[in-house]
Fold this sequence. Notes:
Number of domains: 1
Number of strands: 0
Shape: globular
Number of helices: 13
Helix content: over 70%
Low-confidence stretches: none
Oligomer: single chain
Order of helices and strands: HHHHHHHHHHHHH
Amino acid sequence: MENIGLVLKKEVKEWLHGQGIRTTLFQFVFLVGVFGVLVPLRSTGELSRFLPLVIAFLPVFLVSNFIADSFAGERERGTLETLLATPLPDYAIFVGKVLAGVTYAWGYTLLVLVASLVTSGLVRGVMLAPFTILTTLVGALLMAALIGTFGALVSIRARSVRSAQQMLGLPLMALFLGIGFGVPALARILPQTWLVQSAPLLHQVTGRAAIGLTLLLLVLIDGGLLAIALHRFQRSRLLLPN
């Protein structure tokens, strides 16, 4: 854990230093101001129900930019060889970089959630249920871990940060397009008899049960992807990506 912590601190420090104080402050004001204040103020009725979901997906965008720089950025700056020459074990390097991106993204998500709770409670008199708050935080953490692990694998193979961002952006775009357009299209083309037969089963699944199953699925995916990544991670592949 100590070795992982060393890599984590190094990554966060270098990222914040590379961004600069102005960029960091602007990002903080923008994210907290828009998603923590403005959106809760303007969210009414059904829209307010989707606010926790929006906050839970924030780490997807935050961690993707951070993690794209993890290995590809080291390669661009010429510091990758120095990192690989350290006595740090392979797992500490990989997990430390992923955990740094997760910590960065989840920390911002926590700030946005707190700001939205204060705004909704003090201004609109609306309070989120403890279960909703907990699942939002857990979901955001699992989403950050998923994108962080996948993004680190992409960054290992990329020759530049821009290339890593492009390679990571395409699957994310496909994911959101699939959710936004693929699911409704699938519902339209499925035979009506299937939908009618599955309706009673879907009605038996409560909202909390569906959320619990989704979080469990994310845990399994995160664990499996991390295990595969640690198994495939080799220092010799970092210097000369294919």
